[in-house]
C-alpha cells in the first residue's frame, strides 16, 4: 500500500523485474518530476492522477503499460504533463487531460515507441494548444479522440517518425486549427475524421499539414470538415 505517487515511483525504480501497480482512488502530485526508470504495468481502475503546476511524469529507458487511468495536468504556464525518452509506452482506455492558463502541451516523445488505444486526449489553453509531439520515434494511435482548444489549436506534431493513425477523431477548436503537422518520416491514415471549429478570423492550416521530406499514405480514407 502506498499513500503518495512518490512512493509508487520509488517502488517501481527499486524493482529488478516488472512492477505491477493497482491504483484505487485519485492521487494529486503537487510538485517534482516523477521519473520512471524501470519496467512496470499501472492499472488505474478508473482512478485519476493529477499533476499540478510544478509536477510532471517522465519515462526514461523503460517499458511502461498504463490501463484505465486518467492523467490530468493543471497549470497556468506551459509545462509538460509527460515526457517519454528511449522507452516503449502503451496507453489503453486512458484519458489524458490538460487545462492551461496560457500555452499548453501535454506530452513530448523522443526516440521511443508509443501506442494509444481507445484513449481520449483533451487540451484546453488560452493561446497555443498542442496535445503533443513525437521526434525520431514510432507512434501508433487507434480508436482515440483528440480535442485541442486554443487560439491556435493542433493535435499532434510528428517529426522524423513513423506513425499510423486508425479510426481516430480529431476535434480542433480555435482561431487557427491544424490537425496533424508532419515533417519527415512515414505516416499512414485509415478512416480518421478531422473536425475544425473556427471563429473565422484566420485561415485554418489544414487537417494534415505536410512539410518536405515525408511520406504520407491513406489520406483519401480520411474525412475533414471545417478546414
Count of DSSP H/I helices:
1
Overall shape: it is: globular
Q: Mean pLDDT, as a whole number? A: 93
Judged by helices, strands and strand pairing, the structural class is mainly beta
Instruction: Tell me the fraction of residues in β-strands, as a range.
Output: over 45%
Largest sheet: 22 strands, parallel
Annotation, overall tally of beta strands: 22
- The helix/strand order is HEEEEEEEEEEEEEEEEEEEEEE
The helical percent reads under 10%
Radius of gyration: 17 Å
Protein described:
It is a single chain. The longest helix is centred in the N-terminal third of the chain and has 10 residues, at 5-14. The chain has one helix spanning 5-14; strands at 19-22, 27-36, 40-43, 48-60, 63-67, 70-75, 82-85, 88-92, 95-100, 104-110, 113-117, 120-124, 128-135, 138-142, 145-149, 152-166, 169-174, 176-190, 193-198, 206-210, 214-217, 223-225. The protein has 227 residues and is mainly beta.
